[in-house]
Here is the input.
Amino acid sequence: MQDKTGTALPAEALPAALSAAAEAIEQALDVLLPRAEGAEARLYEAMRYGAMGGGKRMRGFLVLEGARQFTVSRSAALRVAAAIEMVHAYSLVHDDLPAMDDDDLRRGKPTCHRAFDEATAILAGDALLTHAFTVLAGEDTHPDPAVRCELIRCLSLAAGPRGMVGGQMLDMLAEAAEPGAATEASVGRLQLLKTGKLIEFSAEAGAILGKAPISQRHALAAYGRELGAAFQIADDLLDATATAGETGKRTGKDAEAGKATLVGLLGLERARIQAEALVEQAKLHLEGFGERAGLLCALAAYTIERRH
Here is the structure.
């Protein structure tokens, strides 16, 4: 479907936009994670294996689209998108380890510790996390040191003990808890920290790059927060209903591990309704950006329609 000017509407344009963004981010990662020779070669190979060659790149896409609202340079936005994807990749490499989720498949290929070994996977994750901040600190990311510092501060908050790492700890504690101990509020907080905070920062990062007014920063962050919550419910729905062939990773593992999820607490139908409500709330936060935010609106709807 097209509008009156013959331009594809956002929902129809989204798949191509996601694909183009993923390709651009992959190219940026290829440059920022170069192949190495000598003693470090195996480490770089594992870093590239964990970070490249697959994934939706939704977090990176959020950076690029957020930056587009403020006409930020594409090269700067790609550096930030790549840095966030490095942090996301590090979390997946570590989550897949035997001491965590003990997974053998990720993005349709063996997990990093299966392709290499556990020690190398741990070091690759450590290196991806550290290198992400090196990228954000570079002058090519932004000429203003204050902007670079703000990006570093916000990413460290999103990824640290009050963010992604804290969420992983809560996840481990929840697995060891007595059956029935989880509540909708406790699961929601776990998912906000483990998944939502990094998505929230990804949505806000473009506004930081563009030195946007605080109201616009808050609007994009709120959009990201609602999107992240909907994304996690959608992930739980996929784990319960999709096949490994569709998702590229093992499914049914939440039920197998006895892990509490909103899908488990609410049931499939109520969880879907809640995800749909979150998507509508996310869209409301974009109203001040007009048609320019069309792809972000379309992404919110896609989040709960996807099958991978």
